[in-house]
Specification:
single chain, 13 helices, 0% strand
Length: 335
Amino acid sequence: MMLFVSTALLPVTMLKSPQDFWWAVVTAMITTAISVMLILIGTWLDYEYCAPVAEYPAYQFDHLLLSLGIFMFSFGGHSVFPTIQHDMKHPQHFTKSSILAFVVVFIMYIPITVLGYMVYGDSLKDSIIMSIQSSYIQQAANLFIAVHCILTLTIVINPLNQEIEHMLKIPHHFGWKRILLRSSTLLAIVFSAETVPSFGPILNLIGGTTVAFTSAIMPCLFYLYLHAQEKRVNEKIRKGVHSKHRIPTFNQILERTPPLVLGINIFVIVVAVICGIATTQSAVVELATSSFSVPCYLSSSSPNNQDSVSHAVHCCGHHQNVSRYGSSSFCPAIS
């Protein structure tokens, strides 16, 4: 199935930049909103049966660190932002659009997070969709999330392709070199997905390492350096002196950045570094104790893979033996 989807997606990845497939961005946003609504409806329908028997696990600090990695991954779209801003009709409005985007994402995340925890408690699965007991809502939500992921991949992979093309000096116009490079990139992604089908622990590791750098640390550093450089150039222009673009020193950044702005950026960097290190350490420990499924290209009949798809309903309650259908025979934990 993954090979079929990637083959169908390949022609879209050949487009030059996001301005050529803006429709994918809009469609991904719509499918996400629909999926969020379906998840909320499905969770609310389970409230009557699952909330009374829900138990909540005791607080553990290492679990908090792992959750920080997931949170960073959820808001880790910064690597795509420069490309999006470059292709905007009015790039000067990027700040407004990014703030609006993060607010909308936050508004969609919070209800699902709170309601899902209240309803399912410690029976909540890695994906809340798997905890929903209405099979129709579960399948519909999975369908829209799948469409969202497929379309989002075309957006996320584009800056990577452009960066590699720039490094290898591949022409910007369409040609065989672009086809070869972008096909190889997509093939590498498919191979990674097939090799690690259960990506929960990997998600925590990536969130604590690369996403922490690209979404928190590096953007703050870039802003401080660019702000100091811009202020230096403006000062030279007012004096009528031609100025060459030079990277500001650390002392120049301290001198030219307002104390409040400097303090906020330093705070974000310090918190990101501490949380990133702690999350990475916890993720490595979790990886060492996790069991992974055998890739499909090595074993197409793994018992673990068969068990993972044989049950569509995941019951709630501490022992996962409560079903909204009244019979515990639907519950894989005791069937």
